[in-house]
Design a protein that fits this description.
With 408 residues, this protein is of the alpha/beta class. The chain has helices spanning 57-70, 88-91, 94-100, 110-119, 190-205, 209-221, 242-254, 271-285, 300-308, 328-338, 361-371, 388-405, and strands at residues 6-9, 12-14, 17-19, 24-25, 28-29, 33-35, 38-41, 46-49, 80-82, 106-108, 128-130, 136-139, 142-148, 158-162, 167-169, 230-231, 258-265, 289-294, 310-316, 319-320, 323-324, 348-355, 375-383. The protein is built from 12 helices and 23 strands. It is elongated and about 80 Å long. The model has no long low-confidence stretch (mean pLDDT 97).
């Protein structure tokens, strides 16, 4: 295979993989992604940072060979391998790298060693060098400084800073699931970039928000923030404006939201749908934006992206067999794990729905949302088809939710 490396700095190249065809990953939808990996050339030595999904060796090795050619070096030899994270989309080529360059020690966190050997028994006997905050690797006048990033987003995660160049390699942090031929942030439309970054955060980083703020404070205290001139994550575009994404992460972690309400519903015979639309009108009348998601068509990853920047949510579902209509279970179970209250605020919520028997769905959903860290301000449940008076009640429910959101 023939593939080109892309230069991102002096002696620093992107050698990652373009996964054009991926449509679902980590439980959410996407239009392809990149597995970003990097190579750094010193005067006499070379280091590779991270790698790609299993089966992607050929493409990555082609880029490595091209990087050596661009540097005018005839012999392809890697002296150090830096593994920031165990997860397979960043470690799946590690065994092949080790086979090709068996003398290259693998630098990783202490926790990562056990995980890598569990994933790849073929690495038994490889030389591991465990590092953490305060440790460095000196390579021909270039310094790699390591920073623990445990649980961002796996227990083994770490960041690597190429000190003299100010390039931070944070693995999954600050990433986006995007697949473009251009490598830098400014080379694609900003709204596409930030939408993808928001979706990445909402689906992967939300429950870790307190750790995000703690880590950002640590970076400031260590005097590293002013050193960061570029952020090269393991997915998506490379940030040449680091403060754009650092600022966004700070806002999302602190619960900075828009005047917006996310409405999520399903319906059997369109009564709950009618209630959702009336509720939306009530919220709009209070000056709030609304995003509506219909579970016949929409899926969880877009829903939680919306919730991340919303002050309130409304969950609507009919009753069947004396229980919530089952399609709501997917998003409710997802919300339980994401713990949006970790973002420093308890978003306001209402629940609603239609029933034909004894009902109870609205109250059951309200109880769950309270347990998940939302502040439920009201519920509405109607018998079969809404009357005009009940339509007005739904409209007022939307107003009630928006007014509650204004208190945040």
């Amino acid at each position: 295979m023939k593939a080109n490396a892309q230069k991102i700095g002096d002696g620093v190249y992107w050698i990652g993989v373009l996964d054009w065809d991926l449509r679902s990953y980590h439980g959410y939808t996407l239009d392809g992604t990149t597995y970003n990996a990097y190579i750094v050339f010193g005067e006499d030595h070379v280091a590779v940072i991270d790698n790609a999904y299993p089966g992607k060796t050929q493409e990555m090795m082609a880029r490595i060979e091209d990087a050596f050619a661009q540097e005018g070096r005839d012999e392809v030899v890697v002296d150090y391998i830096i593994q920031n994270h165990v997860e397979k989309d960043h470690s799946g080529v590690l065994v092949d790298l080790h086979k090709r360059f068996p003398e290259a020690p693998i630098y990783c966190s202490e926790i990562a060693v056990k995980g890598l050997l569990k994933h790849y028994p073929a690495l038994e006997g490889a030389e591991f060098v465990t590092v953490g905050t305060g440790d460095t690797l000196e390579m021909d006048g270039r310094t790699f400084a390591f920073l623990d990033a445990f649980l961002l987003h796996w227990p083994d995660s770490m960041f690597t800073l190429l000190v003299e160049d100010g390039i931070l390699f944070p693995n999954d942090a600050f990433g986006q699931h995007l697949c473009f031929t251009k490598r830098f942030d400014h080379e694609i439309p900003e709204y596409v970039l930030m939408d993808a970054a928001q979706k990445f955060y909402a689906n992967l980083i939300t429950p870790l928000s307190k750790l995000v703020l703690k880590k950002l404070n640590e970076v400031v205290e260590l005097g590293l923030l002013e050193q960061i001139k570029m952020i090269a994550p393991s997915h998506g575009q490379i940030w040449t404006d680091p403060m754009k994404i650092i600022g966004a992460y700070t806002d999302w972690a602190q619960g900075v939201c828009e005047d917006k309400i996310t409405i999520v519903y399903d319906t059997m015979h369109y009564s709950t749908q009618k209630m959702a639309h009336e509720l939306a009108e009530g919220a709009i009348s209070e000056g709030y934006d609304v995003e509506i998601f219909y579970l016949h068509e929409d899926e969880r990853s877009e829903i939680v992206k919306s919730i991340l920047t919303s002050k309130g949510i409304a969950i609507g579902d009919p009753t069947i067999n004396d229980e919530p209509y089952p399609s709501i279970g997917d998003i409710m179970y997802y919300l339980k794990g994401l713990r949006f209250d970790k973002t420093n605020i308890n978003r306001k919520a209402v629940t609603f729905g239609s029933m034909g028997g004894k009902g109870g769905t609205a109250k059951k959903l309200a109880e769950k949302l309270e347990n998940y860290g939302f502040d439920v301000v009201d519920t509405q449940e109607i018998y079969y088809i809404p009357t005009e008076e009940e339509n007005i009640d739904s409209y007022e429910l939307g107003k009630t939710l928006a007014k509650a959101c204004k208190e945040l």
